[in-house]
Design goal:
The chain has 227 residues and is mostly helical. The chain has nine helices and no strands. The longest helix is centred in the middle third of the chain and has 26 residues. The radius of gyration is 19 Å and the shape is elongated.
Amino acid sequence: MINIHTHNQPFKQYSWAFFALLLLSSPLLFTNKEFLTLWLNQHHNSFLDIFFKYVTYIGNGWLLLPLFLFVLSRNYYLSLVLGISIFVESLLVQVILKNGFFADVVRPIKYIAQSDLLHRVEGVEIYNMHSFPSGHTQTAFLLFTFLALFCKRRTTAYILLFIAVLIGISRVYILQHFFIDVWFGALIGYLFLMISIVLFNRFSGISKSEKWNRGFLSPKENKSIET
């Protein structure tokens, strides 16, 4: 049987590091909205342009389908938790928040005076509206937090967190979001997945069902997913 263990040591360390980063970076929430955007823009170089241009693609969500299919092949219950988390969180961020309550929140290129003087990464289409929160960052933290649940080694968990953070930074670097958009995107991605897991484990009996703890490629005895 595969269970979602939120109390394994690597995931605990992932979570502690995640909240430590949020806490340490929170003073930036009270600075000028464009502070980090302008600072990163002033320190651009050709390597960072290429690096962050491609790192940000990880947050596009293209990894979610392969991950979902892999989990589905191993465990129906985990795939259900992941699938519903992705769907509901996407609905929350993309429809209710970005295109609903915060539809009028503009992105850096429209907010910053004389934005035509800012350095732009070649090949990146920069948007004007629907800045809050960052959907790429939310997706990244949902994805890598889910993977961290199955880590057996602390180093692997830290690497996953580091990649998610890089995706968040990339959104600011390429002028798609402000720091506040990324900060709350990360928080939403992590918390929503955790809330989904708690609710499923508490109110759904299928987590203990042998039928649901199999996938379409599973052998008769399930083995735990290792990362």
